[in-house]
Amino acid sequence: MATIFSRIIAGEIPCYKVAESDKFFAFLDINPLVKGHTLVVPKKEVDYIFELDDAELGEMMIFAKKVAKAIEQAVPCVRVGVSVIGLEVPHAHIHLIPINKESDMLFSNKKLEMTKEEFEQTAAGIASHI
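RESULT FIELD:
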């Protein structure tokens, strides 16, 4: 059975897409820690990020860097933090989180509630800088 991320990539589940390449896909986290919290996933279904071969992992980080640079332009922040936890969904993914202080990256923080319009505006804002 396909993971939720594979179903998002396939268009079976809607998302707020930020960027896409032939190998990777970036979309807003629907339970964000902060505005602009984005997930970067390989289109290839792999459970654990370190199961990717070296070239794929490098390409994923380069793709994530492009997305992070776009987030920095679209969302006011000091920088974009990177987190790889990998326990929530059995599909490798990187969290890109706009931060102004370290505690912005605490996954135990209350999740930000955003409207559909806020998600759409945020995704479009980031995508416009890719």
